[in-house]
Protein: MarR family transcriptional regulator
Organism: Deinococcus radiophilus
Amino acid sequence: MLGRSIGLSHTQVHQAHERLVASRLLRAGSSSPIRSSLVSVLTKGVPYFLPAPPQGDALVRGVATGCCVAPLPGSDAQRLVWPDEEGQAEGYAVQPLCTEAVQAARLDPQLHQLLALTDLVRSHRSSLRERSLAAQRLEHLILEPVAMY
């Protein structure tokens, strides 16, 4: 179970599940996402409610995110990383959506790609074109999940 592997208690997982159902991002009585709602939140809501402003101009060591994980055609985006002492990449720091995201990304490459695309959508270091391409790719991967596997 992903919750246990990233250090979440059963209670935390249950509470998160209930919040997602109440927000109409998960179907009641299942763990099946309402994909169109998820796309809308990630591409339109997250940039406003969980923005990723620049964390300084110095390069830092961390876990790759953004275009380093989910390359966009013709992109010259700046390298983004989640600051982490164990990380192998170097780039500009961006805070992950939550502290557990780094560990979750290490365990699940597909989730890492989705989180990286979300970082491109919410990052102030991404161009309008890059944000748009990342939003399109997120939509495609979420609405057509077989494309990820």
